[in-house]
Amino acid sequence: MAKERIIAGLDLGTTKICAIIGEATVNGEVRIVGVGTAASYGIRTGMVVNIDQTAAAIRKAVEDAERMAGVKVGSLYTGIAGGHIRGLDSRGVVAVSHPDKGITDADVRRVLDAAKAVTMPKDTELIHLLPQGFIVDDQPGIKEPIGISGVRLEAEVYIITGAVTAAQNVYKSVNQAGRRIKELVLQPLASSYAVCSPDETELGVAVVDIGGGTTDIALFFEGALRYIAVVGLGGRNVTNDVAIGLSTPLDQAEQIKKEHGCSFLSMVDDKEKIQVPMVGGRPPKEVPKGLLSSIIQPRMEEIFNFTLREIRRSDYAELLPAGIILTGGGAMLEGSTQQVEQVFGMPAKIGMPQGVTGLADAIQSPIYSTAVGLLHYSVSRTDDKIQRDRYQLGPSGTFSKVKQWFNNFL
């Protein structure tokens, strides 16, 4: 197994940290060779709040994955998320250098540089620059401009920014765990690489990633990311409600939610009973399953209503014929797709990681979507030159400086 073909992704979640190691084959496929997870205690709502705890969990997850794969990894594609993430539209315009020879790679780079020249707060920096389309001499809808003849090149792009301090804390945690970050990648963007088909992103689809602390939203249309948003609620809020409503410890509430939870009350047989351990060592009690669902449903409905509100703020709420793809741990609740279809009035499905071989059965769960998507993202960066340009962060970017500064210590 050639070392240069080993790729690794690291998903930093509020409730779990996941590391997946894969092998990129010659034909661009990904073969999963190692998976490791660890409980996450140092992250809240997608942001690092305790570096020591986060570093310890990263170390455990990566070492478990390395042990399974039989290889060591030094750098990882790492997800970033949280309420500090912002997205905005921008446009760049340049004159084509040699109109008689057609548009070149250098012209594309110049127009993307022009598009990212926007004013941003001092404490934020660019994470991704994502082209939505190119315009050549007033001809719109061009996805691949290289080679086309023209005198004027425009680029419509979507810029994703994040807080510099949030990135610094991610770098500190990964470096303290003895590893390096290859690249920071927006987590819902990474998830889309694992759960979306080209047809879905072309037609129009919403990826809704329900994590432990946040729900991340990414809208795609005509093959490009068009809009992102974050709802500050996730699966942990549901667990807290269950713990309070049933007077059970948090760890037991999480287990009960996973084993018996349903977010659509009409699907539950109220005659069915479940055993609930009590706090303070009191004897367990038996409660109707419908009571559990009556606690879960309102919170999930709140999450979906907030999600719908964010989608309606975009220009693409009516351009999602492929519907909603639910992923992340919160998508595993029984009845979630039925509830989404009722709230959104459009089709919904659970997004499972796709397009991998090897230990594919081990990652057939929406909780692995981001980590698997990071591997697909890394392959796309290697195999497609234009794709590399699309996600290129300029060398003067603050995140590049942060990365270089931390990597000097390893």
Report the CATH topology name of the domain at 198-350. Answer: Nucleotidyltransferase, domain 5
Tell me the radius of gyration. 22 Å
The chain-level structural class is alpha/beta
- Strand count, sense and closure of the main sheet? 6 strands, mixed
Poorly predicted ranges: 384-398
CATH class of the domain at 198-350: Alpha Beta
Helix count from the secondary structure assignment: 12
The count of DSSP E runs of length 2 or more, i.e. the number of strands, is 19
Distance between the termini: 25 Å
Coarse morphology: globular
User: Would you identify the CATH architecture of the domain at 198-350?
Assistant: 2-Layer Sandwich
Within CATH, the superfamily of the domain at 198-350 carries the name: ATPase, nucleotide binding domain
- Measured by DSSP, the beta-strand proportion falls in 25-35%
Physical arrangement of strands within the biggest beta sheet: 11-6-1-2-3-19
Mean pLDDT metric? 90
Fraction in helix: 25-40%
Report a brief summary of the structure:
This protein has helices spanning 51-69, 105-115, 164-176, 187-195, 198-203, 235-246, 250-260, 289-313, 336-344, 369-383, 385-390, 398-407; strands at residues 6-12, 16-24, 30-39, 43-44, 47-48, 75-80, 86-95, 124-136, 139-142, 152-163, 180-186, 205-210, 215-221, 224-231, 273-276, 285-288, 324-327, 348-350, 356-358.
